[in-house]
Amino acid sequence: MDLNTVLEVRDARSGGAWQPGDAWLGGGTYLFSEPQPHLRRLIDLSRTGWEPLQITPGGGLEIAATCTIAQLSRFARNASWTARPLFEQCCRAFLASWKIWNMATFGGNLCNSLPAGPMISLAAGLDGVALLRAQTGALRRVPVADFVVGAGRNLLKPGELLRSVTLPARALACRTAFRQASLYGLGRSAALITGTLDPVDGTFTLTVTASTVRPVQLRFATAPNAEAVREAVEYAVRPDEYFDDIHGLPAWRRHMTFRFAEEIRRELTESETSEGAGR
């Protein structure tokens, strides 16, 4: 879609003061999908030269905001992490054509902060930490699970930029589980729940996305039973935090959240108990 209110496209490397009506331009798959009458200038990140994916000195993974979904998918397929399946599962949770797959960016999905954003699900579920850069150059780090605060809302300040997200090595070593529901075969996610089991101390983590307006993360120091998981979800998610749109009513999203949470609990904790008993 043509954005007929945009008067200038500026290279992000050229600097300059942030102005009202500015927006960062990554892949542009959202920006050019609908009218943006409030925008006057786009700051193009495509020539920043940021390395899409890098292994950190501690064995974690740094994902640049400009990394495309296709690049992330290809990279993860060749990785040896225990958590590797979760990458492809979340990448495939996109309602996306080939063009979107190759243009949409990891950072754009997080910054749009829509409940169904599967990169939010991936990054929050693997304890990702977002690196944010202000116009002054000041940096701050925020857990992705806290970065999104509502449907289409996040902690970015005016002119602030999401530079990258780092997934820690310990999270990449976790066993994972994934559940996703949509009203349609290729529809937008109405509930996307992930689980991880820490191989070091047995911590079980459940991350609720898509069904809620923000990510909700629950941690259990030991393997919980069904009642503990149900109570934790019940108290962590307020009734008004279940998302309501044409892709699913709040009551149905709530039902699927509880159902998937229990399925993930069984998959990760009960199988671990059985394996331990057999040793």
TrEMBL record:
Single Gene Ontology MF annotation: FAD binding
Matching PROSITE patterns: FAD_PCMH
Source taxon at top rank: Bacteria
InterPro entries hit by this protein: Diverse_Substr_Oxidored (IPR051312), FAD-bd_PCMH (IPR016166), FAD-bd_PCMH-like_sf (IPR036318), FAD-bd_PCMH_sub2 (IPR016169), Mopterin_DH_FAD-bd (IPR002346)
Limits of the FAD-binding PCMH-type domain: 1-172
Pfam families: FAD_binding_5 (PF00941)
The name this protein goes by in its record: FAD-binding molybdopterin dehydrogenase
